[in-house]
Structure formats: C-alpha cells, structure tokens
Write a structure and sequence with these properties.
Blueprint: H1 3-9, H2 16-25, H3 32-43, H4 46-61, H5 73-76, H6 92-106, E1 109-110, E2 117-118, E3 126-127, E4 134-137, E5 143-146, E6 151-156, E7 161-174, E8 181-185, E9 188-192, E10 195-201, E11 206-214, E12 217-220, E13 232-233, E14 238-243, E15 252-255, E16 267-274, H7 275-282, E17 290-292, H8 295-298, E18 301-307, H9 311-322, E19 324-329, E20 332-337
Parallel strand pairs: 7-8, 17-20
Antiparallel strand pairs: 1-2, 3-6, 4-5, 5-7, 6-7, 7-10, 8-9, 9-12, 10-11, 11-14, 12-13, 14-15, 16-18, 19-20
Helix pairs in contact: 2-4, 2-6
Length: about 350
C-alpha cells in the first residue's frame, strides 16, 4: 500500500490522530521528556512509525500560498523549516497544514486518474466578495483572477500544483513550470503546464471550462467510481460543459457564445443577447437584484459593450438603450418601460 492509499483508507490505521499530533509536535522545540515520550509511542507499534512518517511528509511538502500582499507572514511562510517555537504557537500556516493532513487521513477528494488526494482545505482559501474582481499572485508565479463572489483553494508543493474552484468563476494564468498544474472543479480536472484557463460554476451547478491560450486537457470522473474518462483536449473559442452533481457526468463541446474573454476587466461584449440574460450577468455584481417584470421587455435583444461590474453605469446604459425608468426598492432595482 502506498502513502496515498494509506491516506485514503485513513480509518484502518490505529492511532492515526496520535501520529498526526506527534508529527506536528516533533517540528517544534524538543525537550528530553518529549523525546522519551515520542520514542515510547513509536516503539509501541510498527504502524505508529508508518503513520508518523506519512504525516511528516505531508507537513514537510505542504507550502502555503502567498497572495498579492494580503497574506500575513505566517500564511506565506513555507512550512518545511523547523520553528524555535512550540508547535501550538506557529500560527495560521501550520493550522492550515493540520487541517490538510486531517482531511487526507479522513479520505479527501481523489484527483481523477491519479493516486493524489486533494483536500478542499489544503490551503487558506482565496475569496472575493460580491461585486469584487481581484487578481492574486500564486507562489509558483501563476496568477488567479477571481470574479465576483468566488472561492478557490490552492495547494502548491515541491512536486505538484493544484487549484480547486469551489464556486464562482476564476481565470488561472499558469506559469511555465516542470511541476504539473491541475485545476479542479466538481469532478473535472484540467491539466496543463502553461496556459490560461477559465472555469465557471453557475448557480445551477453547471461547470464551464474554456481555454483562453496555451494547451490543456480536461478529464471528468464518475462520482460513483472516481475513475476518469479519457482526457479531452481543450480548444480555444470552444467551452466544455458538465454538471457538478450528475453521477453520469458528460462533457459536451459548445461554441463559447456569450462567454466573454473580457470579464476580468468587468466588461462584456455581445452581438446579440436577450435582456434578461444580460441582466443576469450584471446581477453577479449588483448588491440588490436588477429585475425586469415585463416578459416581452425581458426577451428583447441587446447588443454592444456593457460594464456589468459597475451597476450604476450598467443601469444608465440599459435605461437609455431601451427607454426605461429605474425604480429602486429594498428588494431590488426594477426596470420598467416609460
């Protein structure tokens, strides 16, 4: 049984919680009493050493993300060095690794087509609030741009690079590196070494993956077996779509109509789009929903460039374009014909 298989089984290893605790304690300040206690525990069972070695490697290889000036020193420090402080005082960085190791021991999320288990808690998450678009610099030189109300989790080690999109939309610009880069969403994994990839999880749990530049493959696994289907090559100007909650996951190619590559700027451009769909895009950024009650008005076509991330600018443009009045209420902003 290899380390990952042991990690997946988790519960069949006696004393796994003790092993994790010792792996953390032994990275702190050492005393004679602590060393003696550790040696007695280690000698009690061969499985103790196996579990201890596994967790020690997890902690040694884990590296915490550093974002664009927002992470504190504890978060951005690499966790492979010894600290002169007690393990309980090391801070947020080690706390993230503890959660990472615990989740692995309980059986995390398997990467389709590999033996790697990627925990959703592998690192402190990156989050944007509603109305916010923000870029983060990752430790390997890659960048992740998060759309409004988006959350991703990042794990970068000496061997591999992982990003999981929990919800929302993200664009990852992958830096050229010998380490493979895997971008996860639902049961799908995008694999690349250099490229720009968009991933969006819609409110109805549809997942859309689009290659902006470079080369990348998408493999989607069955939820029942975790076995990955044959990878599909991503092509520019074509998006692949699958459901996050469908036990029979299918990938279908479709033209990326109405899926603007400009979204990190807050702008979209459409040759033709129903007004209600355009407003749905703008509602990703609005503090209260923009509402069109007239169904005929909602189905009218709109065309042009729209700053959907700026709600007031968007409302003014739409009101002028369709000759509408704007009515503000606590439950929403209503657009009505004059």
């Amino acid at each position: 049984m290899n380390d990952n298989e042991s990690a997946k089984s988790g519960g069949d290893t006696p004393g796994k919680d003790e092993a994790l605790a010792w792996a953390i304690k032994m990275r702190g300040e050492m005393t004679k009493q602590l060393q003696e206690q550790f040696e007695r525990w280690l000698a009690a069972s061969p499985q103790h050493k196996q579990a201890y070695d596994r967790y020690s490697r997890v902690i040694s290889q884990a590296e915490i993300l550093k974002s664009s000036g927002q992470a504190d020193e504890a978060t951005t420090a690499k966790l492979g060095t010894r600290s002169s402080k007690r393990w309980m005082m090391v801070g947020a960085g080690v706390a993230a690794v503890i959660v990472f190791a615990i989740t692995i021991s309980a059986g995390g999320t398997p990467i389709p087509g590999s033996d790697v288990v990627l925990s959703a808690h592998a690192a402190e998450p990156l989050v944007t609030q509603r109305g916010e678009i923000r870029s983060f610099a990752l430790e390997d030189g890659s960048t992740a741009t998060l759309d409004s109300n988006t959350k991703i989790e990042v794990s970068i080690s000496t061997d591999t690079r992982y990003v999981r999109v929990a919800h929302g939309r993200a664009r990852v610009r992958v830096a050229n590196d010998m380490r493979p880069f895997r971008l996860a969403a639902g049961q799908g994994i995008v694999s690349t070494n250099e490229g720009v990839v968009d991933v969006m999880i819609s409110d109805d749990r549809q997942i859309l993956v689009e290659l902006i530049s470079g080369k990348a493959d998408l493999a989607v696994a069955s939820r029942a077996t975790s076995a990955a289907a044959a990878p599909q090559s991503l092509r520019t100007r074509t998006a692949l779509q699958y459901r996050a909650d469908d036990p029979q996951v299918h990938s279908t190619a479709r033209p990326s109509v109405n899926y603007s590559a400009e979204w990190p700027s807050g702008w979209v451009e459409h040759r033709s789009i129903p007004l209600d769909q355009l407003i749905s895009e703008a509602n990703r950024y609005a503090s209260v929903p923009i509402i069109v009650e007239d169904r005929k008005l909602a189905k009218r076509d709109a065309a042009g460039r729209f700053k959907i991330s700026d709600t007031e600018m968007f409302l003014t443009r739409i009101a002028n374009l369709f000759d509408l009045t704007i009515h503000r209420r606590p439950d929403g902003i209503y657009l009505r014909s004059q």
